Amino acid sequence: MESVKKKRRLSPLARRQRISAWMFLVPGIITTVWLRYYPMLKAFYMSLFNYDAVSPPGKFVGMKNYQALFKTSFYWEAWGNTFAFLFLTLLMVFWIPLVQAIFLNEINRGRKLFTTVYLITTLIPMSVNVIVWKWIWDPDYGIANQIFKFFGGDAQMWLSNPDLTKFCIVFPGIVGGGVNVLLYLTAIQGISKDIYEAAALDGCVGWRKVVHIILPNIRFIVVIQLVLSCITTMQILDVPYQFTSGGPSGASTSLGIFIYNSVYTDLNYGKSAAASVTLFVVIAILTVLQMKLDKSEAA
């Protein structure tokens, strides 16, 4: 028994390695709990009060903030706009970096050049990008209306038209590029050359190679990017706010803008916290469903 106990005891080197590992892990764990989980718990706590910033937490109201929120028409309009942004993003933008990566994988000359060009787009600040596109959508001297007039169309009030504003906000994403191209390209190049050679012998080339070889082998990274894209779009705030501040007539007011206005315009901290909690719950449910669906299809 004594010999077994001695074997179970950690050597000084193993003990130092374990301590060193925890020394690297603990700061990250503390930071994550402090900056991620504590704000979530704090938001739920605030949503149960008629929160008073001067003398917090204010009067306890239980679930009344949620009840009042669900009776607010602007809240449901914001949800509708958020899902519209999500639909347009998945339809118009999500697949662009994947297509760019597939084409980059097919070329030999100039691959590094085009990869660098795609990555440069990440260096452009979002505010600068918005300024450029607001000039493009300008109804008086914007290039979008100039193109329409050239082909015999009528000038449009792009960002002032409730039916077009969400399209105009999402459309700049068709430029693609960014880190996603590099992630997809790395995943594609990680596929074994033996698989490509075997597919070529069976006549699996061109788009058949993309559908039957490339996409199935990079499915995991595509699903992860899909989940992240959905999460990011559901939380969208900065882009529509810089374009239209949620207008016209609330047509581009996402749930993020609704929460922002509840805090800084209405000064209703309890309502904004309740809206934040509901947004978190919906995103969590959608993420779980996406991961479950991917596992079921893989099985």
Automatic annotation (TrEMBL):
The chain crosses the membrane at residues 21-38, 83-104, 116-136, 164-185, 218-237, 272-289. Pfam families: BPD_transp_1 (PF00528). The keyword Disulfide bond does not apply. Its main location: membrane. It is a multi-pass membrane protein. One of its GO terms (cellular component) is plasma membrane. It is found in: Cell membrane. Keywords: Cell membrane, Membrane, Transmembrane, Transmembrane helix, Transport. Residues 79-290 form the ABC transmembrane type-1 domain. It comes from the Bacteria. GO terms for biological process: transmembrane transport. PROSITE patterns: ABC_TM1 (PS50928). Belongs to the binding-protein-dependent transport system permease family. PANTHER family: ABC TRANSPORTER PERMEASE PROTEIN, DIACETYLCHITOBIOSE UPTAKE SYSTEM PERMEASE PROTEIN NGCF. This is Sugar ABC transporter permease. It comes from Ruthenibacterium lactatiformans.
